[in-house]
Amino acid sequence: MNIDLNSDLGESFGAWRMGDDAAMLDVVSSANVACGFHAGDPAGILATLRAAAARGVTVGAHVSYPDLAGFGRRNMDMASSDLRAAVIYQIGALQGLAAAAGTRVRYVKPHGALYNFIAHDERQAQDVIAAVRAIDASLALVVLAGSPLTGWARAAGLRTVAEAFADRGYRPDGSLVPRSQPGAVLHDPAAVAQRMARLVRDGTVTADDGSTVCIEAQSICLHGDSPGAVAMARALRERLLAEGVTIRSFVEAEEGVPA
């Protein structure tokens, strides 16, 4: 059994500190690095990229709506030309910083509202897909497991990586419980670790109504900005390793790199 663990990093901004990137990079195998549109400043992003490179952690571009004030969690009805350009701009900026840090961008994972919206909205989804293809069609696109975005991206020739969320509640249809509702974010490290061990082993999670949801995922997201994030990440990693699960980047798995 193999699984990738990813986390959203590089989100500090000036004097405002977000998460513990150094600690999370010792746990995860892939880092979704902010590109400056929802969080992150150039110096902080570069430092995170250097830390990821030093640990051999795979790097992806965590692209967002241009929404610093809302941390990228507000829906935006952007024109297609604007959204495509914004995504290209963010990936390009991170590619430049990654090169300076001695690593490279291997995938794209949309952030926050953009991630949730394009999982089901074809127009904006096609804009993001077109942007990725325009700048580097070899980049994989991380998608919500079971979402329509998976089919749209594959039809356009992109590789996709199905993702599950360790600390987020699920609804019976496989979508995430909105953050505005009870049960959206989970906080018990032991319960989260047990839940994700079941996901890796059986491909299922329990929804907020008690029903069982089937989820086939290649990567598990561990949010780095929630209270106790590092403790939860460590508990999950330890539980998976104890059950014989190999933690490795999906990029390495695809390329056949020995575990």
Notes on the structure:
The protein is of the alpha/beta class. The chain has one domain (2-255): TIM Barrel. Helices cover 41% and strands 17% of the residues. The protein is built from nine helices and ten strands. The chain has helices at residues 21-25, 42-55, 80-101, 112-118, 122-136, 148-155, 189-202, 229-242, 250-255, and strands at residues 2-9, 30-34, 58-62, 105-108, 140-144, 160-165, 204-206, 212-214, 219-221, 246-247. The strands form two sheets. The protein has a seven-stranded parallel β-barrel with strand order 1-2-3-4-5-6-9. Helix 7 (189-202) packs across helix 8 (229-242). The longest helix has 22 residues, at 80-101. The N and C termini lie close together (11 Å). The mean pLDDT is 95.
